[in-house]
Design brief:
mainly alpha, 5 helices
Length: 111
């Protein structure tokens, strides 16, 4: 933060990577806090419809799924899906990955 500034994409990337580590350790609340900080910076740096935002939304959704917060997970996946469809097209592998993640959430919900 001192070197690049609090709103730099480098800080956002570092926060994102730290969130991944905490998620892997099962520290979901801390992971979500770090993803949230990264998301705010990423939205300001790249715009709310950037693929970087979609990636962070997807990762946050996966954490919420891990916490059993399925409706919130689906909401975040849906936001990510809309961005990915605009950025990459409906037939892209990025969209397919998000649809797969959404299907896994529905499966966990027993739907």
């Amino acid at each position: 933060e001192r070197q690049f500034g609090k709103d730099s994409h480098q800080v956002a990337g570092t926060l994102h990577n730290m969130a991944i580590v905490h998620e892997a350790k099962g520290e979901y609340d801390l992971a979500l806090e770090l993803y949230g900080r990264s998301l705010g910076i990423t939205e300001r740096q790249f715009g709310k419809d950037s693929h970087q935002v979609a990636t962070t939304l997807n990762n946050m959704a996966v954490v919420h799924k891990g916490k059993g917060e399925y409706d919130l997970a689906l909401e975040l996946h849906e936001r990510s899906l809309v961005i990915k469809e605009r950025q990459f097209g409906k037939d892209s592998h990025q969209v397919a990955g998000t649809l797969n993640n959404m299907a896994l959430v529905h499966q966990e919900k027993g739907e």
